[in-house]
Here is the input.
Amino acid sequence: MRPWVPLTAAAVAAVVAAAVAGGAGLLPGGGRSRASGTVLEATLGRCGTGWTRPRPGPQTLLVRNSGNAIAEVRLVDRAGAVHAELEGLGPGVTRPMRVTLGAGEYALRCSDDSAGDPRTGPLVRITGGGPGGPAVPAVSENDLADAVAAYWTKVTAGVGRLADLTGALRSAVASGDLGEARRAWPPAHLAYERLGAAYGTFGDFDTEINGRPEGLPGGVRDPGWTGFHRLEYGLWHGEGAAALGRVADRLDRDVRDLRADLPRQRLDPADLPLRAHEILEATLRFELTGEADQGSGTSLRTAAANVAGTRLVLDALRPVLRTRYPRLPEAYAWLDRVDALLRGRSALSDLSAAERRRLNGATGQALELLAPIAEIAAPRRTS
Amino acid sequence: MTDRRSFLRGALAAGVGGVAGASVAAGASAASGGGDDHRDAPPPLRGFHGAHQAGVEEAPLPRTTVVAFDVIAGNRRELTDLMRTITDRARALTAGGVPDGAGITGPPADSGVLGPSVPGGNLLVTVGVGASLFDHRFGLAARRPARLTAMPTFPNDALDPAWCHGDLSLQLSARDPDTVLHALRDIARHTRGAAQIRWRIDGFTSPPRPSGTPRNLLGFRDGTANPAPAELGRLVWTDDGGTFLVVRLIRMLVEFWDRIGIGEQERIIGRARDTGAPLDGDRESDRPDFAADPVGKIIPLTSHIRLANPRTPATAGSRILRRGFNYDRGVDAVGDLDMGLVFTCYQRDIPSQFEAVQHRLKDEPLVDYVRPFGGGYFFVLPGVRDAGDHLGRALLS
Here is the structure.
């Protein structure tokens, strides 16, 4: 682990302020400040100009947009790896970009909010110094297209299984055999949870199919509450078959609507890398706390289904990540640990306090390792 | 559930980004325009490396958190990795500096709670190990410090298991609460797969009111009769540079306490509330003369200070280094305030020091006004000598 570099916050702020006020001539020189005082241009026509005295080591470069369009800049090396980026750099704005640069050749790559290709500024050579900071080649929307297609194929197949199981659940409720309905509920619900529908994957369908009662004015009595958890609440709180029949019919209809709508839905490629950690973020928050459970005692089976949903995302992204994320095998290893801790478990109460700590810790560690994927694999304009 | 990120993307596409960027620059500009927050920098605290860990002999800082962790590491190697990681983080957090940037390879490495550059010399980190770490899991049974046990239940206790014990103790102290929380978030983030928080309590020390030793939430000065620095080698530090820590989480029933007369309060403690002086003296620093008051006419025989430290040759060796912190954590089921004392003390040997004191205090009148509900015993590991050393190295090698 590299020790932190001494640098006062005031130094960064002062450098930015001085640059905004009047340019490099006013900058405090030397001392403990590692801010270089260099101001790089972000406009397309002058991309990267101003980098006159490149030097190695940790430093704060300032990037100024003196044009009229919103700019986006990346600092890339000769191999194309991105060391830092600034998005949404407004006209007239100067912002700091913190980097650690080793020996090599670097350039600024600028684009604006027009459709045109990015421009690459003059190549700058740095000699000497220690190792540079972390950098990774950008992922383009094109790179992600195959991952998205592969993922969507599996999701589509999963929604088919979901529809079959939800149909069986609806039939069980309609037959009046609520014992059978309680047996049919978990497989159908888990089929949905395996899809990894975190943070809006299926838009409004997710709320209708898997919504929780919090946030509804009437809570568990709210007439607007629909879906698996509404049915779960009724099945495990002694509600009658007649009332639940309407809930099951509605759920079945919503799932069939989702299946029908799926070919028209388009997964934003930018969303897939986010799912790598978001699915399990929701698991930690709603399942490992027991918050989502409405009586079935299946929080841990849901958690296992969510891990499967996370693997779906990782497997699809693997070709993109293989060369970009050296800790991917570790992330898989921690998912394996989570799976092992969940195996054969259903309700949160099946676990002792010590077992819960192990599960929470393994999930947290997996999340720490999954979170970088959202940054690494975010689609970026490349050429 | 809504997509938490699409809004942001939408906003940038719509051109709001320029406005946001401008405000950042304006903020930075204002920061240098004389309205800067350069408080007079207090002198830096001791550094991380040393024969002993920080946070024991230094004067208590205004803010602290005491955290017990259970280790969930799978084996001895992972436990060693955990101790190395805690050491690395404690070293970096104590020294301060600019955290490494992640570029586009991940989320920011630091929470940013202390700004872009973490001030150095503002944090004391103290790490201990509990008896439970020496069970079958890591093959350490034979290495348990001989006198380290789990904290027993004392006669006046009302212990909640969820607030007791732990494989590791971590105390973080600083002048400001953001420094404490920044460090806790950092260490927890780097150790999630190897350790989980079992319990945690935040504490504070009050400023002198109006002078002398800080007061606890009973209104009395607490910690007056601590050993002198020169005595710590004999009373506190073990031969290898460690020390034994006792944590006791003690609820104070402050509403009840506030309903009893000042005379009774002072007889229960043995000191005057206003001055902190023993009841036979004038000043806080006066030494009580128990020999001159053999039947306790002035300082009752059952008073807290007299039982805790009878000041006889026979009890001189049982003295402890007390570090009390006040805690305040909300309201109980009958609407009374839940506040009290995070009692910590350090000693060479818990049975002959803390426990000897505790046995003398059994059934003291004060027990009606307090309720010990948690805590634990820990061995505070020897200090980290240099950049190549790590916490628990001798224990784990």
Observations:
- Chain A touches chain B through 75 residues (CB under 8 Å).
